[in-house]
Amino acid sequence: MNQSPLISLNDITKSFSNGTVALRDMTLDVHQGEFVSLLGPSGCGKSTALRIIAGLAPATTGTVSWGDASGMEAEEASHDVSFVFQEPTLMPWATVFGNVFLPLKLKGQSKAKAREAVMEALELVGLEQFENSYPRELSGGMKMRVSIARALVTRPRLLLMDEPFAALDEITRFKLNNDLLELWQRFNWTVIFVTHSVFESVYLSNRIVVMAARPGRVVDDMSIDAPYPRDEAFRTSDVYSQHCREVSDALHKAMDSYQPGVSV
Amino acid sequence: MSQLDTQAVSGDVALIDPVEVARARAKRRDRVLQWLLPLVIFALAIFIWDRLCVWNEIPSYILPRPGLVWDTLITDWGLLSFSLLNTLKITFLSLALAIAGGVGLAVMFTISRRVEMSLFPFAIILQVTPIVAVFPLINIYVDDQTAKLLLCAWIVAFFPILSNTTLGLNSVDHNLRDLYRLYGASRWQTLWHLQLPAAMPFFLGGLKIAGGLALIGAVVAEFVAGAAGQSSGLASRIIEAGYRLNAPRLFAALLLISVTGILIFFSTSLISHLVLRKWHESALKREV
């Protein structure tokens, strides 16, 4: 990790007009190819951090800088980001194809020219049969796959995911966890993944940033050095539970450090 | 093996839920009754109307028998169809203008909050002031008969489209809005690909109301304008027939207006269904 980071947050603070400090002095370097989880209780600013990285919300103080590894301009690089929301966030009036085509359409590509890229993204998530279906015809897990395909279609360098699987049942979530890991290894993306699940963060990431609330801040930065590929065997292994214990302890320590008088 | 299969099949047959079967039958029955009941009641009402006229020996200039109304409709068809066409012309022209004006203004409102703040109060004033009270003014300022009626019907019809479409354009999912921003969508792209489709169900709801209101506007305007000659519509026929105690023709004209209103309602409902059936909750059938 001696290359320069893909993206750096430098002393990011975000406060809202009502005085809430959502995030205080957050500093974080993320390198190319890392799978970083931001883990913490609700109100710890993890989603806010993600929105700031995506450029959807401005930081109150501090800067976000993009690495110059590929010689890209910062402005250009910041457009090389995809975002997966907690809800699938699909347009109900458009077909699966139309939804995945959207990012390319907004960039001015014609349908014919984008067709190959869209179908490839759909194949990656196993939905190439459903290009003409409407979102309402799909299950929750399939909708999330469409949402992921839409994020992949632009070949982003950085994939931001805001609790994408939180609303899904456990079986679907495990399946999507595995699929995501496989895609990540295949394409060597950088992923920043927001979650409140210790088990999900340990399973997926090679690095976990533990955050605490009021004010939102980073309290720990742990590396999960278990080798990939990780599969169902890893989910029940001793190494896995050992890591889960450590991360869980760190999280509890972070929650105990609440300022007195503040109820949880 | 084949024995096992038949067993399994017969087992399945026995497993059909009698409650579900009863429910399916009730649903089928409801579907038939939905059409049958109104038709039967309607026929019954016409029959009683006819009998009341006969039993009480009501003269036809007070209450004509339904058969006479029908005959009048056919014998006076030349006159009535000419008036119907005039009323239809005003109704659909004003509805088209209401759509253009309502959607156009709504789009302007979403593009600029300031425009909305400045103009929305005027839209409300236009809406809440009874058109009958405003009409004498319009009568003074506008010379052309058709323009007069159009303006009147337009004022009545455009507000539901404006307010519904404005609501629709502003009720876009926030995450989708963020997504468009993230991918660098221009304002027009956001409007065209995101806000307008999202507003469609709201717009169509407004259209259903506006369709009926345009007809009401067209008829009311003609009543107060007291039109005559070339541009006279069904309202003029009704007034005229009222003066001459020609009740059968009055009823025939009334019948035409009702049927027009019903057809407008069904066509706007059909348009709404066709546009939304693929994706919107309101147009979906659910399996219980």
Widest sheet, order of strands of chain A: 5-6-7-3-8-9
Question: What class, by secondary structure content of chain B?
Answer: mainly alpha
Q: Terminal Cα separation of chain B, in Å?
A: 36 Å
Q: In CATH's first tier, which class of the largest domain in chain B applies?
A: Mainly Alpha
| Total of DSSP H or I helical runs spanning 4+ residues of chain B | 11
Number of strands of chain A: 9
- What is the name of the CATH architecture of the largest domain in chain B? Orthogonal Bundle
Number of strands of chain B: 0
Q: State the helical fraction of chain A.
A: 25-40%
Terminal-residue CA separation of chain A? 38 Å
Oligomeric form of this entry? heterodimer
What would you call the shape of chain B? flat
* Tally of contiguous helical segments of chain A: 9
List the helices and strands and how they pair.
The complex is a heterodimer of chains A (264) and B (288).
Chain A: E1 7-15, E2 21-30, E3 35-39, H1 46-54, E4 61-66, H2 74-78, E5 81-84, H3 96-106, H4 111-124, H5 140-152, E6 158-162, H6 170-187, E7 190-195, H7 198-204, E8 207-212, E9 217-223, H8 232-235, H9 238-256
Parallel strand pairs in A: 3-7, 3-8, 5-6, 6-7
Antiparallel strand pairs in A: 1-2, 1-4, 8-9
Chain B: H1 2-14, H2 18-55, H3 66-75, H4 77-111, H5 113-128, H6 131-141, H7 145-170, H8 174-182, H9 187-225, H10 234-243, H11 247-276
